[in-house]
Input
Amino acid sequence: MPGTPQRIVIIGAGQAGGQAAYSLRLGGFEGAITLIGDEPQPPYQRPPLSKAYFKGELEADRLFLKPLEYYADHAVDLKTGVRAERIDLDARTVELDTGAALPWDKLIIATGSRPRRLAVEGAELGGVLELRTLKDVDLLKKAAFPGARLVVVGAGYIGLEAAAVASQLGLKVIVLEAMPQVLSRVAGPEIGQFYSQVHRAAGVDIRTGARLEAFEGAGLVTGVRLAGGEVLSADIVLVGVGVLPNMELADEAGLVCGNGIAVDGEMRTSDPDVYAIGDVAWRPLVHYGREGRLESVHNAIEGGKIAAASILGARPPTLEAPWFWSDQYDLKLQTAGLWTGADERVMRGDPQSRSFAVFYLKEGRVIAVDAVNAAPEYLVGKKLVAAMATVAPAELADKSISMKEIGARALSQ
Amino acid sequence: MPKITYIDASGTERTVEGKNGMTVMETAIKNNIPGIDADCGGACACATCHVYVDAAFTDKVGKPSAMEQSMLDFAENVKENSRLSCQIKIRDDLDGLKVTTPESQH
Output
């Protein structure tokens, strides 16, 4: 077939880049695949880094998405510890830091995101850590001895998950959050209040509305100074204040970028032979009629599958409502959808029972659900979100009506 | 080393060696067994590692936890012997275990 690509280069060997390679081979692609990653490991799962892996329940090789042999067995040329330095759209090459220039017919950019750094005094001190890679969490694990004082900056998923593990490991943990509520970027206030209480009950000092001024120390961090002058003693600081998309390569190459690399529904950038997937992609969010960037396993996997299907001319996967999860203590938070823009929130169940859900509605339609130890609410909720189904708030709040019934009624309409 | 046999929807059998403490899902991933997606990597968060446990082993494997059961209640094509393979840990007495994967995990 004329125009069939022979050489596919994937920049970024995270979950999205890995998935693209697996899906291309699974879909029957027989040409060359080169997968470039700047970390020393093959593609691995990041979610456990702030959870089971930090806690010491998993060894690193159990995080690998595929065993090392996979890459040789499936002729995926995995180049680890290598950085892509430049994309040349005219020459159709990627230049590497090894000096090599790799030619491609199709290029997939899966460069992910990096932790946002704080522009405060002392940010470069030793012991001021971030949590994104295996290397990051190995550093954290080394420092996290029982009794150590940990200050977590930022009460998002990463910060709170790490705080939960650290307190279970016997560290003294303080969490600083600039907003008035924890998890405020990703969930509604009911969820934030609940998790604040859970953490406080576990002995974690949660301080919302906190204004960080500087990290103190000489060489190694010894404290965190707040506006007003209070200094919190610290042996370790973990900064988890969000991520930035690694879109510089694409931007410098002249691809259209916004808050991420702009792509269409097939994950194609402004150059139709170049795709962008995973955290770095600024993609259509079809359920919401807008574009956005998603930082999640779901998005990484889905993007990899969509790009592979597009390249192979195969049927694309059914688009799922965005989904996420967070493990803290004995609690599993499962989220479907994006709550931004909700005009109504409905509580189902009692937070005191540690099993409940919050449904987020917009103009009567279910746009998201946060379910804590409540799998039925999550799984049916995910279907309601995917269908943008209309459900009466009173029905959602009524525990005597099962989620199965609610789902059956709403989805048959 | 307990042996685990995976049977895909078309009936093809693949037998591999498991390791005690690893899950049936992880063992599948490690051995490139098709038919198990395991999107969430074993966090019991996605229900894409669904398998049917061979009748001879359903008692030994045991019942799903409440959380797993809830996830299964809403998965596709669930049967009496359905389990999430990320929640089955391999032990010596599961040597010879056979599980069948469904046609699709989504």
Summary: The longest helix of chain A spans residues 297-312. Chain A has a mean pLDDT of 96. Chain A touches chain B through 30 residues (CB under 8 Å).
